[in-house]
Amino acid sequence: MTEDPDGELCFGCGDLIVDRYLLRVNDQSYHVSCLRCCACQIGLERQSSCYIKGNNVYCKMDYTREFGAKCSKCLRSIQPNDWVRKARDNVYHLACFACDSCKRQLSTGEEFALQEDQVLCKTHYVESLEGGPSKEDGNMKSKTKRVRTTFTEEQVQVLQANFQLDSNPDGQDLERIAQITGLSKRVTQVWFQNSRARQKKQQQQSRSDCGNSSPSPASSPSKISSPTHWMNSTDSIHSDSMSYSD
Fold it and tell me: CA-CA distance, 121 to 104, in Å (whole number)?
């Protein structure tokens, strides 16, 4: 905020600024009351920064919503503290970076291909080049069909991460999680049911232990740790390099 000795035109309303103080953004002058986010109309006079796009002024929230990076798979916004993977010009949430053919989440160091904006694991990329899996491979898969579901480490990590966000997801979220992990919706639903039962049992056991013995730290469901080991040349925390003016 600066003092205006001579008087200037407000870039917002076009009127002469006769107030003692004015606001300057990108070499443009504003009445204090005219510097507002063009989307939500919130006043920006008390904000430490604002964002410029063309001749429009945005608050941080609306600028991120309108122009921030979005996941190439789920098309949801990527927040500055989200863990992401990048492939060419595409950016993905960590859990969304999965093979579009088998729906399996890809691990750090694993080879993959980006074909017409589709992410493919090495196996399915080779199959696409060779015209699909051979008949013999198809027969082998049918003979070795598993009766009991086993989970990979990556699938468990995705399931646990989503459980911490919502332990009782609705049908739409179950389908989304199932698609990411490559599991069926029914298997995903059963996993969440069993996890809720284990969590309830642990909480009941914790209360019982506290009532029958001297005070001690109560146990709680374990939480998945941040995947710091995934940080390498192909992983990064997304941060917008947005210019702004005070």
Answer: 8
* 173 touches 166 (CB < 8 A): yes
Which residues, including other chains, have CB under 8 Å from residue 135's CB and lie 6 or more apart?
A: none
First to last CA, the chain: 9
Q: What is the pLDDT of residues 165-198, one digit of tens each?
A: 899 999 889 989 988 988 888 889 999 999 999 8
Half-sphere exposure (CA, 13 Å, Cβ side) for 129?
A: 9
Helix extents (H) in 24-170: 60-67, 122-130, 135-143, 153-165
- Apex 117 CA angle, 111 and 121, nearest 5: 25
Residue 214 gets which letter from DSSP? S
Taking the C-alpha atoms of residue 158 and residue 112, their distance in angstroms, rounded to an integer, is 19
Q: What is the maximum span of the chain, computed from C-alpha positions, in angstroms?
A: 86
Bridge partner residues of 17 (DSSP): 8
Q: What is the distance between the alpha carbons of residues 183 and 176, in angstroms, rounded to a whole number?
A: 10
Measured in degrees and rounded to the nearest 5, phi and psi for residue 22 equal -140, 170
C-alpha to C-alpha distance for 162 and 223, rounded to whole angstroms: 11
